[in-house]
Amino acid sequence: MVENFIVRSSPKSHLIHCPMNPILQTREEHWNLTVGECTPFTKASSKEADAIWNSMTAPLGSFTQTQNSTYQITPENNPLCEDPISQCIDSIRLSLQCSANTVNMKPIILVSVLCAAASAVPAPPLTTGLCDTARSIPNNPGLQFGPDGKLSITVFSDLHFGERELDSTVVMYACSPPVASGEGKDRKTISVMNSVLDNEQPDLVVLNGDLISCEFVAPDKFESIVDQIVTPIVNRDLPFAATFGNHDYSETCSTRSMAAHMWWDIKGTNGQKLSFTTQSVEGPVEEVGWSNYYIPVYSSSDSSELEMLLWFFDSKGGHVYQPGKNLNTPTGSYVTDRVVSWFQETRDEFNKQNGRTIPSLAFVHIPVQATRAFQRAGGRGDNTEPGINAEMIGHQDDCEGTDCYNHRDYGFMKALVETQGLMAVFSGHDHGVDWCMKWAKNLPTSPSNGNGAHFCFNRHSGFGGYSNWKRGARQILVEEYKLSNREIETWNRLEDRSISGRVTLNSTYGTDWYPKVERLQSSGWWADTS
Questions:
Q1: CA neighbours closer than 13 Å in the CB half-sphere of residue 306
Q2: How far is CA 23 from CA 224, 260, 283, 370, 527, in A?
Q3: CATH fit for domain 147-505, picks 3.60.15.10, 1.10.390.10, 3.60.21.10, 2.40.50.140
Q4: 457-484, pLDDT tens digit by residue?
Q5: pLDDT tens digits for 479-492?
């Protein structure tokens, strides 16, 4: 994610600050590199890479670690180290990938690659300025409200690609009928994505967990499935951000590799990077996950004026990536305390630097327990919280087989409650639920002192996974002038292009009256329990 990297230019050197290396947490202290000792150049598969490699002259330059994990890159005799900065950084990246084959330079390779990405963020509506190294949190490239003061977000959730290898007569889930052909389901899901994106034309696409049913996918297949998933997004040159869900974690799928593939390899039709997906919290994948980060959103009139933050959290679940071992080691399905601490510290620093509370939205695949408490207490109404309510909500680290609560998401819930300006949290996971609720102060859960934030469920988007309601995607419309009132609009755009459950999340939501949502199914097999 671009917030991790600061690039600043000077006539003779570049400073690269990488407080967190999303791929490796290891670093060396000093490198003196030359290019003549490394052949063949394994990454020179494109004409661009060949041209950069052939233009190199030795020595390339030196990397020296200074205070606070800042690396000074001093190029020597490198014809590419001129404006724009990205040319210089990319050339160093390519040479280091080569050097890694002979002198084990992989840690600094990845540092330099990641820093290169900070200067190559997607085209508008993203901003493209360099970061300010004087701040402890950089003024990063991110999203920007459009000239009309609006930001539109499409959220696909529970796509469940990759079930194509199963026999069409297999009953995959106890509560669903036999599945159709796997490849046919994925094609139908792509059709839904194309339809939604054509109708909504969003500024950002969020893939909110369970992108792949990884328990059915071989280790050498998940990257090609990611390519398939993002095809509708790439074809429209839309920036996107992902969180990972419990089905993305398996012995055969690496979320770390998925994120890296999105970041480095997936580009738009103009060759620019599109993915914001990264990791900003140090720690083992099985503990902290691999999709905890934020995206800053800037003013329509001033690309340096921060107006809003989009937070992304990894609720994990599933199993540890251990291909071929058949150990089935589970991971906790909740946002860990280490991630919570990072969130609180970063949030508070943003508010301090800007001298005000920054409004925000959050995305996490598995919902928090407060949503089930609201549902169980009968607080939801068809006309006050319109939507499908066809299953009991499964929340973070839910106790399997019993109706219990183990409080493992307590720290995360408490942090959300304490976050002033948090307008809404969006989750998936539960395919038969797609309404929004307000977490009021009297909600019967712990912590019970809700702050009025809204919690919304996404419509089940994919034809993989259980349930047979009409597929669709949640839409979010944020208008800049309404941020002071903490007000946003949201609805679900369905596969047939219709709109379901359009509501305004504001101070009176939960008492306002809306039409009851029509519960449309592709086949009538599952009764609504609401």
A1: 24
A2: 20, 8, 11, 33, 45
A3: 3.60.21.10
A4: 999 898 888 888 899 999 999 999 999 9
A5: 999 999 999 999 99
